[in-house]
Amino acid sequence: MEKIDIRLLADSAPMGPLQRWAVFLCGLILLIDGYDLTVIGVALPSLMVDLKIEASAAGVLASAALGGMMLGAMVLGTLAERIGRVKAIAISVFIFSFFTMACGLANDVWTFGMLRFVAGLGLGGVLPAVTATITEFAPQRLRSFITTGVFAAYSVGSILAALLGRFLLESLGWQGVFYLAGLPVLLIPVLLKYLPESAAVLQSRHDSKSLRELALRIVPSLQLAASAEVYAPMPEKKSKVPVGGLFQEGRAFSTLMLWIGFFSGLFMFYALNSWLTKLMAMAGYSLKSALMFLLLLNCGAAMGSFCSGWVADRLGIKRVLTSMLVFGALATALLAQSMPQEAIAVLVFIVGFTMVGGQGLAYAYVGQFYPASVSSTGVGMSAGVGRIGGIAAPIIIGTLISLQLPHAQNFYVIATFGLLQAVAFALINNRVAAFCQAREVAA
Questions:
Q1: Are residues 248 and 99 in the same domain?
Q2: I need a surface site. Which of 64, 72, 248, 415 has the fewest CB within 10 A?
Q3: Where do the TM regions start and end (predicted)?
């Protein structure tokens, strides 16, 4: 009896209708995710005035969704294994769309904060499932390119939040940017119909009929005999690698530097996305101009994400990353200076290109630094520490603003964290990195 490994089939398949639908829908989901997460930075100046919110409390509001994301990634990730990945994605989309829209109906700070936290559950839950879907169904020869392109949609969502905010704030007030976030609920039937279910989920259910149907969707021209068995190889259950494994074989210092780097990097990332509009308004710019700066920040981030990987492949990931972060920290510090609006606009774009766009490169670096046996643990721990920095950033910057310090001081604080990330990554010992050891073995 012929046996067909559906994973190998997907790896070598052409870009057919199933693959195109998967890429399109996953990219669209991340675009919406990016919009919903960035929209707080767009609405914050008007929101603070309308609901009479102090800057310190506004910082907590900006962090509420980030706290929900941490919990959502764990809860909905586990749920996907039980009910299926497609249903988990649909539930996540409903949660973050409905509750982000509901934020527009809030008339007090506590209601708004709770709604943002619940929306964060969906925002955090959708990312692992979308990543797994792209990894499973994108052809192997195009996987890196497709993954990079799909994740760039996240920055496009942030760009749309800033762009649409310039018009919606005038016509509908801050509520309008949240109402718009409810439209993706209409996407759920499309997701349920066209997004492919994970082969591993079907295998765990012993659903041979659905596996055969999935194989024919992956390769429509496949000649599948009636007696052929389509299966998805199930990974062997391995015991979890303890965190202590990250500190072995000379990696202890470098692991600490990675954690400091990720904490600092995501602090800077969420500080800028949450507070840049307000900081620019404090500097005397109109709300429209302040939103344009947020737009430029995310345009730079999208371009930096695309370009940095290509350059890093040729010049070395650590060298490119640390250089970008140093330039970005300098540009952030210069935002505190008084200069023409055109010069500020260029600096904001540079900050987005280097500091924000470089964060994707940081994830690539940590993924390559550890050997395969501890790689997942290393990435997970670094990302977890980074999320703590992301949650802390809006609160800390909001507290500093409430102290009524000169707005320039806030940019110096953000720049300091960017420089700290650069120093931390520069101090990492590449000689104990897995990719360097692999080269030595090959030689």
A1: no
A2: 248
A3: 21-44, 56-76, 88-107, 113-133, 145-164, 176-194, 252-272, 293-311, 317-336, 343-365, 385-403, 410-428
| 273 and 190 within one domain | no
Specify whether 208 is located in the same domain as 280: no
| Per-residue pLDDT reduced to its tens digit, 8-56 | 877 787 888 888 999 899 999 989 988 998 898 888 888 888 888 888 8
Indicate if 326 and 263 belong to the same structural domain.
Answer: yes
Residue 440 has pLDDT above 60, yes or no: no
Q: Can you state the angle between helices 252-282 and 17-50, rounded to 10 degrees?
A: 60
Whether 202 and 290 share a structural domain? no
Considering the domain architecture, whether residues 99 and 65 belong to the same structural domain is answered as yes
What confidence category does residue 262 fall into, taking pLDDT thresholds of 50, 70 and 90?
Answer: very high
Within this chain, do residues 245 and 232 fall inside the same structural domain, yes or no?
A: no
The per-residue pLDDT for range 388-423, each reduced to its tens digit, is 998 999 999 989 988 888 878 899 999 999 999 999
Sequence-distant (6+) residues with CB within 8 A of 30 are 127, 130, 150, 151, 153, 154, 157
Structural domain of 395: 241-443
CATH number of the domain encompassing residue 103: 1.20.1250.20
**What is the total count of domains within the chain?**
2
pTM (2 decimals)? 0.79
Closest by CA to 211, choosing from 201, 224, 199, 223, is 199
Among 183, 202, 237, identify where a domain stops. 237
Give the sign of the dihedral formed by CA 89, CA 95, CA 101, CA 104.
negative
pLDDT of residue 439: 42
- Print the SS3 string covering the chain: CCEEEHHHHHHHCCCCHHHHHHHHHHHHHHHHHHHHHHHHHHHHHHHHHHCCCCHHHHHHHHHHHHHHHHHHHHHHHHHHHHHCHHHHHHHHHHHHHHHHHHHCCCCCHHHHHHHHHHHHHHHHHHHHHHHHHHHHHCCHHHHHHHHHHHHHHHHHHHHHHHHHHHHHHHHHCHHHHHHHHHHHHHHHHHHHHHCCCCHHHHHHCCCHHHHHHHHHHHCCCCCCCCCCEEECCCCCCCCCCCHHHHHCCCCHHHHHHHHHHHHHHHHHHHHHHHHHHHHHHHCCCCHHHHHHHHHHHHHHHHHHHHHHHHHHHHHCHHHHHHHHHHHHHHHHHHCCCCCCHHHHHHHHHHHHHHHHCHHHHHHHHHHHHCCHHHHHHHHHHHHHHHHHHHHHHHHHHHHHHHCCCCHHHHHHHHHHHHHHHHHHHHCCCHHHCHHHHHHHHHC
Tokens of residue 295, six digits: 């737009």
